[in-house]
Amino acid sequence: MAKITLDKLRHSYLPNPAGPDDFALKQIDLDWTDGGAYALLGPSGCGKTTLLNIISGLLTPSHGRVLFDGQDVTHLPPDRRNIAQVFQFPVIYDTMTVYDNLAFPLRNRGVDEARVDARVREIAAMLELEDRLAMRASNLSPDNKQKISMGRGLVREDVNVIMFDEPLTVIDPELKWRLRSKLKELHQRIAVTMIYVTHDQTEALTFADQVVVMQLGEVVQIGTPVELFERPQHTFVGHFIGSPGMNILPVEVDGGVARFAGHAVQLEGPIVRQGDRTEIGVRPEYVRLADSGIPATVRKAADIGRYTVVETMVGDHVVNAITDRLPPAPGARVFLHFEPSQTRLYADGWIATEVWK
Question: Name one GO cellular component term (predicted).
């Protein structure tokens, strides 16, 4: 296991990058502690896989360093970084049995056969594959093949880090939650450093202790799932995390007062800075249909089980609210109340309010 440090890391696929837009990864400084469970979360093209390939040694960064426990490994090849990687598509040998697939990484390193047997059976039990050890991998379902791929990463006891690159993409949705739960359980049992790359917020938030949210090659926030939901530091985080995401609404600020559609909006605390673009962010969970407030018109309502998402219009702006009551009919006139403690000002995308103390 290892502490992973990314020191002033940047990367461009161009030979002579001229500016920030030429970099797939803009400057990243990160420390991941030994034994932690982390997720890299963001949409396609945000730089997640580039960063993973740099950590694994498949790609050398244009600038900066990668350190494992303080040792510079930036220019070391993957086989000298002592890592394990699980890919989107299962990497297994179909003609081998499940047992031999799990044993292969250990046998390839000359591990004693008695230890190989003990370790294979231990990992097979964790993954609920004991009754399939003698089966050929080609005869297994996709989820069990991916279990083998995970097991090949987990079976080694000497790895610095295990990295998962969108490992559940090809898995049937009904089985994803089981594998996610199993992976979380495995991490708690073996406490090895794990980095999980995904564009799926549910996978990231249910697996990781700390989530690194990326956009356009930048890290826009690092935090626990609760921190990312409750107080997004950037409008992208607010919009990307949550279903539906945070309402991001343009406001004008005058004399320390934010006004949305001409109505003063009470914020979580004082405004500490302004920018060229000012917006408020408030999650639908904290927008209430009230007897007074900001006038709006109901456009539609979606019953999603435990609650209903009511989509309203304030002028040309969509504002979502969540209610557990019978929603108003489309076309109904309503009033919206934003919970002040959950209403935040953003300047040029970044949070610009403090919490009242």
Answer: ATP-binding cassette (ABC) transporter complex, substrate-binding subunit-containing
